[in-house]
Write a structure and sequence with these properties.
This protein is α/β, with parallel strands linked by helices. It folds into 2 domains: 2-157 and 320-338, Rossmann fold (3-Layer(aba) Sandwich); 165-315, Dihydrodipicolinate Reductase, domain 2, CATH 3.30.360.10. It is built from 12 helices and 12 strands. The strands form 2 sheets. The protein has a 6-stranded mixed beta sheet, with helices on both faces. Helix 4 (108-117) packs parallel to helix 5, helix 5 (127-144) packs parallel to helix 10 and helix 7 (182-192) crosses helix 8 (197-206). The chain is globular, with a radius of gyration of 20 Å. It starts with a strand and ends with a helix. The structure holds L-homoserine.
């Protein structure tokens, strides 16, 4: 499977590291032999090599901050845009791992639409296009017989999308509620342990949990984007940010967290999606509530269903390997469907 990567930050590098370390296992056990033919980034440059780029050399060049350090090769091009590489007509799938833009979803949305028009399958970790235009992307993918997968956009590699769309395919889902932002859950956990807000946020950034602009995490917009994605994925509804009530954790002081702790309670940033709307808000939960014990960058979601009642999934919500794992799972699903 020939891949174009758009973006090569935490998630793209995590994915490349997984390919590097699991290449022979993936080939032997999964019959999956991926080749990265193009990588385009906003800050490191662009590379295109029809025979395939070397993951180790890509990672080494990324360490320097620029693909200028990628070794010379007679067929290597360093000047191509995403559009040019799609137009070259050799790739099978586009992997969108560039930074999320929840205002316009661009430039990723245009790239995704062009990729589908050109017959490429899509795997996204970038939340923007899925949050703002999932239904259009899905209609186009369906019309073309292409796979549109976005497991990484909610709860990293914890398989909420596969669970809802495949394992629970016979259930009607009435609501989804949980902890959907790893950064804020990590900050709240560390603050309860006595760390300052600023130090906890700096740690979350160093661990690769936070968005490129962490305001999106702490003000609730990242979780709100995930509510929009769930509304589209679970309910087939196109909601806008203005349909949601959104607040984050920036209004919480250390004293609030200590007061809650003294009362046997804990603040969590709770996101909810229903067919009619959604919300994101810091909420004080009794310790007896199972969501209260979900700590660090871990996420949790409860789906209310007609046949199964409440089904809860808990797992990693952010991180380099954890999000790379979701991209890999999506590509394996594309590979299975193409057989
Ligand atoms: N910044 C996001 C989070 C990354 O902290 O949850 C995963 O979507």
């Amino acid at each position: 499977m020939k891949l174009i990567l758009v973006g090569f930050g935490v998630v793209g590098q995590g994915f490349a590291e997984i390919l590097q370390s699991k290449a022979s296992w993936l080939s032997r056990e999964r019959g999956f032999v991926p080749t990265i033919v193009g990588v385009v980034t906003a800050t490191k440059g662009s590379l295109f090599l029809p025979d395939g780029l070397d993951s180790s050399a890509l990672l080494a060049a990324a360490e320097t901050g620029s693909f200028d350090a990628y070794p010379r090769h007679a067929d290597l091009r360093r000047d191509m845009s995403v559009s040019d590489i799609i137009g070259a007509g050799i790739a099978d799938a586009l992997v969108e791992v560039s930074p999320t833009n929840l205002d316009t979803a661009q430039p990723a949305l245009a790239n995704c639409l062009q990729a589908l028009d050109a017959g490429l399958h899509l795997a996204l970790a970038n939340k923007g296009p899925v949050a703002l235009d999932l239904l259009r992307l899905r209609a186009k993918a369906n019309a073309k017989g292409l796979q549109l997968r976005y497991e990484a956009t909610v709860m990293a590699g914890t398989p909420i999308m596969q669970m809802a769309e495949e394992a629970l395919a016979g259930c009607q889902i009435q609501a989804a509620r949980g902890i959907l932002n790893g950064t804020t859950n990590y900050i709240l956990t560390q603050m309860e342990n006595g760390m300052s807000y600023a130090d906890a946020l700096a740690q979350a950034q160093a661990l690769g949990y936070a968005e490129t602009d962490p305001a999106g995490d702490v003000e609730g917009w990242d979780a709100a984007g995930k509510v929009l994605i769930l509304a589209g994925a679970l309910f087939g509804r196109r909601l806008n940010m203005s349909d949601l009530d959104v607040s984050g954790i920036t209004g919480l002081a250390s004293d609030d967290i200590a007061d809650a702790k003294a009362a046997g309670e804990r603040y969590k940033l709770i996101a909810e999606a229903t067919p009619d709307g959604g919300s994101v808000a810091a909420t004080r939960l009794p310790l007896s509530n199972p969501l209260a014990s979900v700590s660090g960058a871990t996420n949790a979601i409860t789906l209310d269903t007609d046949l199964m009642g409440a089904v809860t999934l808990i797992g990693a919500g952010a991180g380099k390997r954890e999000t790379g794992s979701a991209i890999l799972a999506d590509l394996l699903a594309i590979n299975r469907a193409a057989r």
